[in-house]
Amino acid sequence: MKNIRIQGGRPLDGAVSIQGSKNAALPIMAAAVLHKGETVLHNCPKIADVLFMEKILARLGAKVCWKGSSLRLDCSSLKNTRIPDEYACQMRCSIILLGALLGRFGKGDIAPPGGCVIGKRPVDLHLSMLKALGARIEEEGGVLRAHTEGLCGRAFVFPKQSVGATEHAMISAVLAKGVTHLKNCAREPEIIWLARFLNGMGASVEGAGTDEILIRGVDALHDSAFQTPPDRIVTGTYLCAAAITRGKIIIENPPIAELPAFLGVYGKMGGQYDMVGGKLIADGRKAYGAVSLVETEVFPGFSTDLQSPVMAVLSLAHGKSHIRENIFEDRFRVAESLVHMGAHIRINGQDAYIDGTKELRGCRVRAQELRGGAALILAGLAAKGQTCVENFQLVERGYEHIQEDIRGLGGVAFAEEE
Ligand code: EPZ
Fold it and tell me: Which strands form 136-140's sheet, in the order they lie side by side?
């Protein structure tokens, strides 16, 4: 097990560059399977989830190699169409490989990805979309076996907005016959980045970022290279770090347009931010304001992935705050550890009521999932004394070098094996 030890009480100060986006890189890696050739992904974050996806692609027969932060995927000799069970259950987004395998080979098998601590996370929207495009899917001995004589484009309306299912449909439709017209699509920035990547390899995708996306099937794709955008959730996490430590930081490469609702909440907390010469100056020295209601929503609403980091900041606000989680069923687990550190938080179903306290106590706590773990690190940065966050490997799924970044900003953070 890995831990990270944080010494609290130091306002962060300095400049930091944001890693490549986890949630942009993962669907792009899956989409590379469509092409019998080479794809290069620059500025790819070397995080656990990317290394997981890399292992899956290698097991399918892709040749994978890193050159600095550029990931080269050669899928020419990829031939295996069974996603290894041990990965499918650990990384849910591997489900979108199914559509890429169906598009290229007409078949694909995967053990149904299980739920996780933040919610049940079913894949019904993924499967109904694939069936609508002409896939037959049977469950045999706990494995989903999908096959098709050829995917065919058609109109499909998502019953509810889903980031992964929208991405999965886009990937599945690239080599399908005819036109696929998707409605009620998710509008997250990662969907726009995926569309740009797909078009860069020869696909024809229009409308990404709106709730209607049109994909015209093509017969062939070509080699391409793509620059992974900076990670908007890591950016928001670091702005929360500036707020909770009452510090002031400079973000070198901020995806500022991708955080509209978060920046609104940041301002309500008393956080100040300004773009100067393409850099974001985030001033958290007055960020002790409570916020009457923070509601997570699909984009462009407030991102569920920043809910736990904001909960940590509001734990030390002057006054009462209320968070409502509308996306996942069980995304308040971090509250228990924050209370252990001295926070006053009451959970009632999808609502969290936070009564700001004067001080958090450094102590030993345990991360249960990625963004909750990041929130505990933030709390440790402001707590009195030292905090040890166990299961730091869960945070490494999405944060490439958070301990080095904290140290670069004047904080004290050291990872250790136990
Ligand atoms: C993506 O997950 C992100 N992951 C998540 O980030 C993010 O929290 C989520 O979108 C919402 O923004 C990646 O991009 C790899 P959804 P995804 O399908 O695609 C339900 C992080 O911390 N649903 O938009 O799985 C689902 O249960 C991670 O970086 C169905 O009911 O999210 C949830 O309640 C966590 N049936 C809601 O939709 C389905 O078939 C939104 O989920 C699929 C989803």
Answer: 82-83, 107-110, 143-147, 136-140
For residues 105 and 245, membership in a common domain is answered with no
Residue 116: active-site member = yes
- Tens of pLDDT, residue by residue over 231-279, are 999 999 999 999 999 999 999 999 999 999 999 999 999 999 999 999 9
The pLDDT of residue 89: 78
Using the atom order of ligand 1, give the atom closest to the CA of residue 190.
Answer: 14
Return the residue whose CA atom lies nearest to atom 30 of ligand 1: 122
One domain for residues 149 and 256 = no
pLDDT of residue 368: 97
Q: What is the pLDDT of residues 297-332, one digit of tens each?
A: 999 999 999 999 999 999 999 999 999 999 999 999
Tell me the CB-side half-sphere exposure of residue 252, using CA atoms within 13 A: 11
Range of the domain at 385: 2-18+230-417
- Protein residues with CB under 6 Å of any ligand 1 atom: 22-23, 26, 92-93, 119, 121-126, 162-165, 186, 190, 304-305, 327-328, 370-371, 398
- Show the CA angle centred on residue 403, arms to residues 402 and 409, nearest 5°: 90
CA 379 to chain centre: 21
For residue 127, give the ligand 1 atom closest to its CA: 40
Same domain membership, residue 254 and residue 217: no
How many angstroms is it from 219 CA to the middle of ligand 1? Answer: 30
What is the number of domains present in the chain? 2
Note whether 143 and 82 are same-domain residues.
Answer: yes
